[in-house]
Amino acid sequence: MIRQACSVGVVAVLAPLLGLWGPGPVIAHAMPDAVSLQESIPSGQQYGCLVCHADKRRAHQLGVHSDRGVRCHDCHGGDPASYETPQAHGGAFKGSLGKLESVAVCASCHSDPDQMRQYGLPSDQIAELRTSRHGQLLLDEGNLDAPSCSDCHDPHTTLRSDDARSGVHPTNISATCARCHDDSGLMAPYGIPTGQVAEHRHSAHGIALFEEQNFAAPTCIGCHGSHAALPPDVGEISNVCGRCHVNVRRAFDFGPHGRLEGRSAPLGCTGCHSNHDTERVATDRIADTCAGCHEPGSAETLLGEEVEQVLLRAESEMVRAEEALHELIRGGHEVSDERFRLRAAHTEFRNLETLQHTLDLEQMDDVARLIASASLDIRGKAEVSAEERWERKLFLLPVWFFALGIVFLAGFKLRRIRTNTRETH
Length: 425
What we know:
By secondary structure, the protein is an all-alpha fold. Helices cover about 60% and strands about 0% of the residues. The protein contains 25 helices and no strands. The protein has helices spanning about 1-20, 35, 50, 55-60, 65, 70-75, 85-90, 100-110, 115, 125-130, 135-140, 150, 175-180, 185, 195-200, 205-210, 220-225, 235-240, 245-255, 255-260, 270-275, 285-290, 300-330, 335-355, 360-425. Helix 1 (about 1-20) crosses helix 8 (about 100-110), helix 10 packs across helix 11 and helix 23 packs parallel to helix 25 (about 360-425). The N and C termini lie far apart (about 135 Å). Residues about 1-40 have low confidence and may be disordered.
C-alpha cells in the first residue's frame, strides 16, 4: 500500500511537468509556517530522520534551505516523528529521489512566484529547463543521461551562487559542466566533443576569470544559458557576444559580415575568434585570418591586408609615443599634458580596434590620424628636449677643457716643486 501511495504521489507531482495532464502550472506545496522557519533541524531525539541519517544534518545546515526551515520530510516525505523505519517511511515517503522526482520536488517551491518573490529568485527555471536540450532529453524522452536539478546543485548543501563553495559559483561552473561534458563515453552517443572546459580555461575569457578573478568574464552559462542551456545558432552568436561586447557588436552590424550573418556562411564572432578557446586576433595575423575563408588575392583578402596595415601603423605610433614620453621623464620635464595625450591616443586605439569589425577603411584612417597626431606631438617635444640636452653638453665642453687644463698645470707645477725639493737636499 505504501509503495502504491508513493507511486500515485510521484505521478501526481510529475504529471504537469511531463505534460500528462496538459500544460497546467506546477502546483507548489505549502511552505512551513513562520515559527518553523525560525528553527533549525532538531536533534535526533526530536527528529526521527536523524536517527539513521545524522550525517546529512551537518550538510543540510550549511545550505540555504536550512535557514528557511526546509527539512528532510519536505523533500523526501515520511513521518519524522517516528523512530521505527516502517512508520517513518510510511505515508507519502519518496525516499532517495530519482532525476525526474528531483525536478518535481524542486519545482514544488521554485515554480511558485509567491514563494520565490520574497527571496528575489526567479520562478521560471523549470519552464526554461523544458526548452533546453537537457530538459528535452530528461522530461520529454525520459533519458536519464541528462542532468537534473541535483546534478548541478548539491541537494543537501545547496549554496548561493555567489558562495565560492557552490558548484554554480563562476569559478566552479566549468568544473560542474565538465562532470558530464568531459566524459567522452557519456558524450559519444550524442556526437558532442569533449575538451571544451580545458579550451575555455586557456582562452581570453578563462584567463580573465581564473587568473585575473574578473567575474564579469563569461563562464559556460554566460553563452549557453543555465536552465535553458542550448548552443547559440549561427545567427545568434553575435547577439550572445554582443551582450558584453556592445560596441563591437554595433560595428560588426555595420560591416559586410554582419549583413551576411547566418545567411551565406557562419560569419559570426566565432568565425575569427573561435568559441571555447576564444582569443584576440593579433594585429599581424589579421590578413592570415581573412585568408582562412577568402581566396588569396581576392578583394576581401586585400581589404584584410589594408586593415592590418592601418592597425600596425597605429600600434607603431603608440610604441613611439610611449618611448618619447619616457625620454621626457628621464629629461626631468613636466609631462602632465603628454600623459593626457597618450591616454587619449590609447582610447582612440581601442576605438580603432572596434572599428576594424566594420571593415570601413575611411573611418579607420580618420581614427588612425588622431593617434598619429598625438604621437607626433609627444615625439616632437621629446626631440626638442633631446636637442636642448645636446646643446647643454656642447656648452659644457669648454668648461671641461678648462678644468682639465687647470688639473694638468697643477700636476705639472707639483712635479716641479718636488723636483726642486730633492735637488736642494
